[in-house]
Design a protein that fits this description.
There is one protein chain. The protein is mainly alpha-helical. 76% of the residues lie in helices and 4% in strands. Strands 2-1-3 form a three-stranded mixed β-sheet. It is globular.
């Protein structure tokens, strides 16, 4: 209702070109992305289920991990089904409402994941640097608040950016040289001046990325300083192992974003932009549950018990 009445562009359509410049690769790309999405769904929902039903995983670290898995599942589900559809159909158009809704949801979960990784870094900081206070500091109420923060800010950021997108005008058919309705490609086809929307998006993106990285770097500097001072080699190894999975996830997620948006020469290559976008919207949500499950004995043991229980049932 609001879209139809508040914006005369509601009748506009968008065409997502995706990877249409490679007609011979449409089927292989479809099969590849379908395999990735299948692993993403099974991996992330499996992680959420495993953590929920395994008493030994009812700790703050796994509570946060379950929400990271949920965010990854939602993020991938917002983007990948439309990508798969466009790889097998001739008509790659999407309505104005559909494009805006995809952007809104993708933005919510992208921001939530950025901040959730920072929350998990804080959790590791308390566990390693203040172990005697861990239970008291990371109480259920505090954990719930720390999880609510990324979701809330994700919604606020997305609503703000979506509102200013709705203030723009779009004329008829619009060609988007990507497979997802992200902010930069939407404003690039606007018939009106997108300056305010672009500046606002830049400010919010920089704030989210910088604040998240500052929290992560600050906490891990303290963590490494604490680990180095540990007298026991076994203690140091255990402390490093509890942080290794999280550090891997952080490096892949933030590394891809910084590589894609902070290296000027790559912005002019649409292929590199598409590949980079595919990595952080489709591939990374698949990798996170694999990273945490393959490197974590507790998770592997809980998954094994759950599978045995399901087989017996």
């Amino acid at each position: 209702m609001w879209l139809a009445e508040g914006n005369q562009s509601a009748g506009a359509t968008f065409t997502l070109l995706g990877f249409s410049e490679f007609p011979d690769l449409q089927v292989p790309l479809f099969l590849g992305f379908l395999s990735i999405y299948t692993v993403t769904v099974l991996g992330n929902l499996g992680m959420v289920l495993t953590i929920k039903v395994s008493p030994r995983l009812h700790t703050p670290m796994y509570f946060f991990l379950s929400h990271l898995s949920f965010v990854d599942f939602c993020y991938s589900t917002t983007v990948t089904p439309k990508l798969l559809e466009n790889l097998v159909v001739e008509d790659r158009t999407v309505s104005f409402t559909g494009c805006i809704m995809q952007f809104f949801l993708a933005c919510v979960f992208a921001v939530a994941e950025t901040l959730m990784l920072a929350v998990m870094a804080y959790d590791r900081f308390i566990a390693v640097c203040k172990p005697l206070l861990y239970t008291m500091v990371m109480s259920p109420k505090v954990c719930a608040s720390l999880v609510a923060g990324p979701y809330t800010w994700g919604v606020v950021s997305s609503l703000t950016l979506t509102y200013f997108l709705l203030e723009l005008s779009f004329c008829g058919s619009n060609i988007i040289n990507n497979f997802v309705c992200e902010h930069s490609v939407i404003v690039s086809v606007s018939c009106s001046d997108p300056y305010i929307s672009q500046v606002l998006c830049f400010v919010i993106a920089i704030f989210n990325e910088v604040s998240s990285l500052v929290i992560i770097l600050t906490t891990y500097i303290s963590i490494f300083a604490t680990i180095i001072k540990m007298p026991s080699a076994g203690g140091r190894q255990k402390a490093f192992s509890t942080c290794a999975s999280h550090l891997t996830a952080i490096t892949i997620f933030h590394g891809t974003i910084l590589f894609l948006y902070c290296v000027p020469s790559f912005k002019n290559s649409w292929l590199i932009v598409k590949v980079g976008t595919a990595i952080y919207t489709v591939v990374i949500p698949m990798l996170n549950p694999l990273i945490y499950s393959l490197r974590n004995k507790d998770v592997k043991e809980s998954v094994r018990k759950l599978m045995n229980h399901l087989i017996q049932f």
